[in-house]
Amino acid sequence: MHKDGRTPPSAQFKKEHLSLSNIKKTVSIKNDYLLKPYIPAYPELVEFQVEKVSHVTGEHGVRGIFAKSGFKQPSELENNEHYFLWWNLSVTPHDIFSAEDRFLTSLFPRRSAAQICNGSPILQHFTNSEAFMEESSYGNFRFTFSLKELLWHYGDQFCGRDSPVLHIYDTALYKKEIQYTVVVHPPEVHLYDDYPRLPNDGVGDSVCWYNKGAMWWRCQSPSDDYNSALEVNRSDASVSVSPHASVYYVWDHVSVAFHMEPGWVLHVDRDRLFRRVKACEVSDHHLLRSPDYPLSLHDAESTLADLKARYG
Q: Which H/E stretch holds residue 215?
């Protein structure tokens, strides 16, 4: 079940989060970006510890969310047996800073304090895929919650005294994108019983895991356009970045899909919704579905002001 109107993935691997290197080994894969013979050296397998997730929608969607005081099945999908409420990891500048520190420590475990202080930021040259952008393909209105808070709301409303269950759902390969999906559902929903449980640690080659309120993501490819090359100097425990001719490549990200039944509304009080929503720009290659269309940032902010006047 796709979260937008784009074409289905070119390849889908159910019940597993397949690493980039293992996807490449799959004989049936035909992807011009994925199979490029040369990609400039970049920071690979960087571990991001992300506490927040975001849901982005258009004007039609945001008005519906405030009208219902929560998130529900879109009207065009109301006859579906169930659907997914989609959220993406919301990576902050602090998350990037911390991930860079972990990455450098993995390269040079015995870095001195001087080497740490004198190093120049490197991830800012490579974290330029949609996973790290302020603008969005899905609309002008971004709701951002801590994943822990969102799981609490979901569990309180749909799981009784139990906690939601997190499973590995799939790996979906698009033209320039690898999407790793985690499905969240109540324990009494048995549609996903034969899907592996999401790990709570990074042992082995796990792409992502959930631990103590944060989703850990071992990023496979942080950019869709590599125009810099990473240079590692082992002798003085340093790294540097040099310009490189652009090479387009696949990028990866993690989505969290909340199982929703017909008629379910994930209720959040409107005051909290107003604190969690912000207007954002829509990216050039958007995936908005009718009747929504991209708004200017000014018009999007005016829409939020209108909603605040009506419901605030």
A: strand 214-219
Place of tokens 């009208």: 67
3-class secondary structure for 226-269?
Answer: EEEEEEEECCCCEEEEEEEEEEECCEEEEEEEEEECCCCEEECC
Phi, psi of 52 (to 5 degrees): -115, 150
Number of domains in the chain: 1
The predicted-structure confidence for 26-78, as pLDDT tens digits, reads as follows 868 889 999 899 999 999 999 999 999 999 999 999 999 999 999 998 777 66
Domain that holds residue 207: 11-311
Contact in structure between 169 and 183 (CB atoms under 8 Å)? yes
Angle value at C-alpha 290, between 182 and 140, nearest 5 degrees: 65
8 Å CB contact between 39 and 249 = yes
Mean per-residue pLDDT for 112-126? Answer: 80
**212 falls within a domain:** yes
Tokens 């792409």, residue located? 207
